[in-house]
Amino acid sequence: MTNNLNFKIINTDGRARNGLLHLNHGTLKTPTFMPVGTGGCVKAMLKRDLEEIGAHIILGNTFHLWMRPGIDIINHHEGLHNFIKWQKPILTDSGGFQVFSLKELCKITEEGVRFSSPINGSKLFLTPEKSIQIQSILNSDITMIFDECTPYQIGSHIINREEARSSMHLSLRWAKRSLDEFKRQENKNSMFGIVQGGIYEDLREESINGLLDIGFNGYAIGGLSVGEPKEYLHKILEFVSPKIPDNFPKYLMGVGTPEDIVNAVSNGIDMFDCVMPTRNARNGWLFTRYGNIKIKNSRYKNDTNGLDPTCACYTCRNFTRSYLHHLQITKEINSSILNTIHNLHFYLNMMKEIRESINEKKFDIWKNNFLEDRSSNSY
After folding, report:
1. Which of 273, 304, 322 is where one domain is finished?
2. For residue 320, what is the DSSP state?
3. Disulfide engineering: 251 pairs with which of 111, 220, 279, 360, CB 3.0-4.6 Å?
4. Which pTM does this prediction carry?
C-alpha cells in the first residue's frame, strides 16, 4: 500500500526511542499520548485548552460518530477536522472495541457484527468495509482496521487458546478486508493493523506475521487492559513489541496508568491513548508527581496548597486544593474542566519529559526517579 505515514527514529536509549511521525495534518514527536475525544470532543476541554497543554493529536471513535451526529453531517463538513475545528492529526478507532464492550448484545459472524443501537434500538450492521468507509469520510489521519477485540474473560469464563485463536484469525481476515476497502476508497491517509491473540504468545506472533504479510503503515497492540491480571499485560507487551519491526510506529491501545506507559516506552512503544486521565478527572482522581489525589477527600477541605507544585498547568497555577475540593463536592461543572486540564497536562508533560530523557540518554535515570516519586504518595 502507499505509505502516507513517514516515521523516522531520531534517538534511542535501550529500547526506548524518539521519533518523528509525519501525518497529513501535522508531525508528531513520539512517544506521544493521544487524548480521547470519542464523539468528536475531548470531554471538558475546549480546543484552546488542548492547544495550551500541548496536545498534537486526538483520538475519535468511528462507532460513536456513526451513531451521533451521523456520517452525513460530518461529510457535509468535508471531514471530522472541519466539523470539530481541529486541524491537527486525528486517529480513529474502528469500532472494534465497542463490539467488545457490547459483546452480550452483538451477533458476530464472518461478515460482520449485528447489534441494536444503544441510542434508539435500531438494528445495525457493522462490517470491516463499513468501518473503513466511515473512517474515510471522517478523513482520519490514521485509520484503524476493524477487528474483534479478544476479551480476557466473559463472565467467569477465561478465554481459552482455541477461542483466542478463532478470534485472532477472524481479525486477520477482517484486516485484509479493511485494507482492500481502504484501497478502494483511494484513501490518502494511513492505516494501522492491530495485533490480537489474547494472553497467548504463539497466537500473538502468528497475528503479527499475518499482519506484516498484509502490510500496514503501523501496528497497534490490542486486546490488553481488558481485565487480564497486570502481569499478563507486561508479559505480552515485552514479547510482542520486539516482534514488530522497529521501522514502524508501535501503538499500545487503551493503556493506561502513568506507570504502565513508562514501562511500555521501555519496550519501544511510540503511541498511547486512554480515557483514564479524563474519566478520572471527572471523578476527582488527580495524577500528581508524588502520587494520586482523591480531591473529594475531607483532608483537602482546608488545604491552601496548589494541587501539584511541580506542575505548570492552568489549574495548578491558579487554584488551591481546597477550592478544587469544594468544586468536586458541590458537583460544579468547573470541577470537571479544571481537573481534566490538570490530568491531561500531567500526561502530556510526562511524555515531553520522556522524550527529553531519551534524547539525553538518561531515560532509565528519569524512569527510576519518576516511579520512585510516584510511589511515595507524599501528597
Report:
1. 273
2. B
3. 220
4. 0.96
